[in-house]
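Continuing the series of single-chain predictions for the mutant panel. This is the parent chain; the variants come on the following pages.
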Amino acid sequence: MKIRVTYRGPYTEDQHTAQSKIIEYGIRQNYNAIVLAPTHVDRAGPILKKAVASGIKIVLIDSNMDTPYHTSIVELDNYKAGQMAAVHAGFLVEGAGNVVLARHMENHASTHARELGILDTIKSHYPQVNVIADPYMGSSVGSAYRIMSGIIDRVSTIDRVFRRKNCLSINPRRDCPSKNLHRHNADKQKELSKPKSTSNHQFKYKPTGLRTLFKFRRIASCSI
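Parent structure:
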């Protein structure tokens, strides 16, 4: 079997129009099928309808849509995954404490189902676990950092933060105001910013911001 695969995707997950333009490109190229990881539950509906009318098969992966145009879908039971994550969360905080659920984006089906599974299970099984905030972090690392640092500044006690892995990729030297860092870590922060190589090549050290922020504020976090 000879199959030619072309891979294309928007720069960030909130660029729904860009994803629709990529599907439009597939229609113009007369592809036999389009495998789509949708960024929104229905934003690409009109262009998918056009693709199906052109005889193109649509297969969804990772996340479902509220449209009837796909032939099949490959995804996890994300609600069940969220329930399992909530059980683990309850174990980590020993059944009581203040936690933050860093949600992904509105109208993203797979992560919404996972987050709903977490919130429902914590509410029904762990009455002493208090979800003090569950903000949508957005698709950019900058928005994730600003939202989370604001929560940390307002709330005195956070026992655990649950978030997606890609919420960590932020540069604190650029985005992290000094007031968010403990004073006794100032020397360590300077040490981290030094190049690790002693050669003539210069490298810019770019630590991951939320991980550094959580570490300096002594807040435990884990991915869901």
